[in-house]
Design brief:
With about 70 residues, the chain is of the alpha+beta class. It contains 3 helices and 2 strands. Strands 1-2 form a two-stranded antiparallel ribbon. Strand 1 and strand 2 form a beta hairpin. The protein is globular, with a radius of gyration of 12 Å.
Length: about 70
C-alpha cells in the first residue's frame, strides 16, 4: 500500500528507484535487489489488470510514473 500511496502523491511525476527505496522502504542505499521490480509488477497487476490504458508506466532509465489519465 505504501508504494501506491507514494506514487499517488507524486502522480504524473517520474519517481526514481532511489526515491522509492528511500521513501517506501526507508533504505538510504541501493541493496541491489529486485524488490522494487517485484512490487511494481504486483501493483501493476492489481491496478491495470482490467483497463485498456495502464496507469502505471515504466520510464526507461529513469523510474516509474503513475498517470492520472492512463
Amino acid at each position: 500500500f505504501k508504494l501506491l500511496e507514494y506514487l499517488a502523491r507524486n502522480v504524473d511525476q517520474v519517481v526514481t528507484r532511489t526515491m522509492l527505496l528511500e521513501n517506501v522502504w526507508e533504505y538510504s542505499f541501493d541493496p541491489q535487489t529486485n524488490v522494487i521490480d517485484v512490487h511494481v509488477s504486483r501493483l501493476r497487476g492489481k491496478i491495470d489488470k482490467e483497463f485498456d490504458k495502464p496507469l502505471l508506466h515504466t520510464v526507461r532509465g529513469a523510474g516509474y510514473r503513475l498517470s492520472e489519465h492512463g
